[in-house]
C-alpha cells in the first residue's frame, strides 16, 4: 500500500489560542522546521493577543512563515500540534477535542497529532479514542520536561555537564512522574551504585530536587526558563517526526501491556519518527519503579473518568 505521508508538504498546524499555542509557534519558528505554520483556533475559540502579536512581529527563520487559518487549511499538514488551554469543565474540553478530531480525520487523516496542551495524558487518550487514524500517529509530549529537569538537577548536584547525564522520567506528566533512578547514568556509571565523582547517591536530596523540577514542569509557560524548556521539548518531538530522526523520547502514548498496565496513556521511552510512534525501548525497572508506574496509571484512570 502506498504511504501517502511521503507526499506531504512541510506544513505544520498549531491548534490553540493561548500562551501554550504561542510558545509552540515560537519554538517551531525558532528552529525553522517547516515551510508553513498555520495557527488554527480551537472549536469555538479565537486568536489571543499573544499569538496575534507573534504573527505580526516574528522574524521568519529559513523558509518558515506563520499565519492564521482554519482546520481545512491543514489538508496537507505533516504534523498537527494540539496546544489548547485547559478549561474548568472537562466535559466541554472532551467535546471540543471530539469536534476537532472529527475535522482533522476528514482533512488531514495522515498527519501525526502531537498533544502539547494540558492535561497531556488525558487529552492524548481522548484523541486516540475519537480518531480513525492509527493510534501510533497520536502522542503527547509526555514527561519530556520532567526528563529535562531531572538531567539538569543531576548535573548540578554532581557538578558535571548535562550532556554527560543520561536520565529518563516515565509515567504521568504533572502529578505522577516516575524518575528511573536505576538507569540514571553519569558517563556510563549508574548513580545508584556507589560514589560518582566522589559523591554518594543521596536518594532524599535527589527526590527533593526532582520534586522541585516537577513543580516547574507542571507550569510550562509560566516563566521564561520553563517556557524555554517546554519549547525545546515541543521542537524535539516535531523535528523527530518531520525529519524521521527516530529519537528515543519519553512521550505519552497508549499503553497496553508493559508492566501490566493497559488502557491508559503514559510516558515511556519511545522511538519517534515520520509516522509517530515506531516502538518502545522499555527499561528494566526496579520493583519500586514498576509499582510507581502502576500507581501513575491508576492516577490517569481516575482523572480520565472525570475527563470523559
TrEMBL record:
Any single Pfam family the record assigns to this protein: Ldh_1_C
Lactate/malate dehydrogenase C-terminal domain: residues covered: 150-302
Gene3D superfamilies to which the protein is assigned, alphabetical: Lactate dehydrogenase/glycoside hydrolase, family 4, C-terminal (3.90.110.10), NAD(P)-binding Rossmann-like Domain (3.40.50.720)
Gene Ontology biological-process annotations: lactate metabolic process
Active site: 173
Gene Ontology MF: a single term: L-lactate dehydrogenase (NAD+) activity
Listed transmembrane segments: none
Name the record gives this protein: Lactate/malate dehydrogenase C-terminal domain-containing protein
Species of origin: Longibacter salinarum
Amino acid at each position: 500500500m502506498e504511504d501517502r505521508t511521503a507526499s506531504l508538504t512541510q506544513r505544520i498546524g498549531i491548534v490553540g489560542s493561548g500562551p501554550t499555542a504561542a510558545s509552540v509557534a515560537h519554538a517551531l519558528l525558532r528552529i525553522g522546521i517547516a515551510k508553513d505554520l498555520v495557527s488554527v483556533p480551537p472549536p469555538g475559540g479565537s486568536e489571543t493577543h499573544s499569538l496575534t502579536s507573534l504573527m505580526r512581529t516574528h522574524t521568519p527563520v529559513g523558509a518558515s512563515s506563520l499565519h492564521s487559518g482554519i482546520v481545512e487549511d491543514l489538508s496537507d499538514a505533516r504534523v498537527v500540534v494540539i496546544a489548547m488551554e485547559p478549561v474548568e469543565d472537562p466535559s466541554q474540553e472532551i467535546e471540543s477535542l471530539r469536534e476537532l478530531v472529527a475535522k482533522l480525520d476528514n482533512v488531514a487523516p495522515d498527519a501525526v497529532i502531537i498533544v502539547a496542551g494540558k492535561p497531556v495524558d488525558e487529552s492524548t487518550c481522548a484523541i486516540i479514542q475519537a480518531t480513525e487514524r492509527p493510534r501510533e500517529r497520536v502522542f503527547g509530549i509526555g514527561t519530556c520536561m520532567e526528563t529535562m529537569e531531572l538531567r539538569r538537577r543531576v548535573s548540578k548536584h554532581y557538578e558535571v555537564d548535562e550532556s554527560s547525564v543520561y536520565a529518563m522520567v516515565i509515567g504521568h506528566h504533572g502529578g505522577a512522574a516516575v524518575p528511573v533512578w536505576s538507569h540514571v547514568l553519569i558517563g556510563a556509571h549508574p548513580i545508584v551504585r556507589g560514589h560518582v565523582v566522589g559523591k554518594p547517591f543521596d536518594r532524599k536530596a535527589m527526590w527533593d530536587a526532582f520534586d522541585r523540577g516537577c513543580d516547574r514542569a507542571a507550569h510550562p509557560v509560566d516563566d521564561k526558563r520553563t517556557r524555554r524548556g517546554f519549547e525545546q521539548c515541543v521542537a524535539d518531538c516535531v523535528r523527530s517526526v518531520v525529519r524521521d530522526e527516530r529519537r528515543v523520547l519519553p512521550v505519552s502514548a497508549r499503553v497496553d501491556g508493559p508492566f501490566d498496565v493497559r488502557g491508559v496513556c503514559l510516558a515511556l521511552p519511545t522511538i519517534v519518527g515520520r509516522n509517530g510512534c515506531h516502538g518502545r525501548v522499555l527499561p528494566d525497572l526496579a520493583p519500586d519503579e514498576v509499582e510507581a508506574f502502576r500507581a501513575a496509571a491508576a492516577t490517569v484512570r481516575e482523572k480520565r473518568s472525570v475527563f470523559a
